[in-house]
Amino acid sequence: MRLTLTEEQSLIESSVRDFLAAEYDFARRQRSVQAPHACEPTVWRQFADMGWLGLLVPERAGGLGAGMLEAGLVMRAFGRHLVVEPYAATALLATPLLATHGRSEQRSAWLPPLIDGSRRAVLAHEEITAPLPWLPRTTVARREGGGWVLRGRKQLVPGACGADLLLVSARVDAPGQGHRIFAVRPGTAGVQANAAATADGAQAADLTLQDVRLSDADLLGEDVDASTPLAEACARHLVALCWEAVGAMEALQEQTAAYAVQRVQFGQPLSQFQVVAHRLAEMAVCCMDALASCELAALRLEAGAAEATELAAMAKSKVGRESRFVGQQAVQLHGAMGVTEELPVASWFRKLTAFSQQGGSTSAHSREFGLAMLRTGAWAESRTLGTFEPAVELR
Questions:
Q1: Which of 6, 19, 48, 245 is the most buried (most CB within 10 A)?
Q2: Residues 167, 121: contact at Cβ < 8 Å?
Q3: How confident is the model at residue 341 (pLDDT cuts 50, 70, 90)?
Q4: How far apart, in whole angstroms, are the C-alpha atoms of residue 241 and residue 239?
Q5: What does the alpha-carbon distance between residue 54 and residue 61 come to, in Å, rounded to a whole number?
Q6: How confident is the model over 106-147, as pLDDT tens digits?
Q7: Ranges assigned E (strand) in the chain
Q8: CA–CA separation, 154 vs 129, rounded Å?
């Protein structure tokens, strides 16, 4: 089945591809990598001018009011051009979370500067002790003296250095209270950020929260359990990252196919050798298979599917495995040139390597999706073949 885009979706896809082709070539990307916090201010303002920083924000709040498919189309182009600015962490995760979960005064204070690019916010959520983004956090929020005290660690928060606002997730230190999200200024006492360059050329930071004292005004939204909004936001963000990986995979496959035609070995192009032709064909199939899983996840999320985390696990499991194969084959078919800085092949490979661990490892999501299929019995259902009845009961 081939997905048919609406006129608006086609315009978004063409505009982002045309912009990046003209303004974000490989040499231009290197300037972003070397910029402070791996975010070039000029590029970020251009993202704002195109309306991309408010892509998932409702129109009534000043955004474009787009959905997951539109976000996927943007991220697919970003992956093709190896964009290092923390777009997904800001515009597709923190900003929509603030728009849907924040109080009215928080939305009015922060959404306009986030959409126009004058401020940046990121969600500090990943932890080394939680293999999946929707599992309970070890960062703890404790009630004390009419306010809150945060203590814990966050791992490799994209875009944390240079951000104006940190949305910190924490588990309430009381039975049955779930999680809360706190709006924390980076300079708040007790917040320590250790910057680190990631494998794909971007920047992140490990955060240490040591007795960070906050008031009720710093609580994002009302004082209720935010576990469900957090899980849904992380699931949507993970699907967007899968779209980005697909863009990198497609670019790698095209670059490798072109190189195999040009490179002559033993008197004929590499593409004429049967084993090489088979590998190129398998890479193309992997790209189409990964794209189909992203489209399925995005469409079902837009339709209001309740199993957001299962859809995200499905997409990450599929794209993670396919991207590993495509990246490895691209490097091998390029030979030693595949690991040089002069060609973007190595950068695409590092992008896919970093993706394999973002939001939880591929193996962790494969296990999560498999368990979900066993739990619900969905593994035995097919829209074309009907329902399969196993001969023995599966436990």
A1: 245
A2: yes
A3: confident
A4: 5
A5: 9
A6: 999 999 999 999 999 999 999 998 889 999 999 999 999 889
A7: 121-124, 140-144, 147-158, 165-172, 179-184, 191-197, 203-214, 264-265, 268-269, 381-382, 386-387
A8: 10
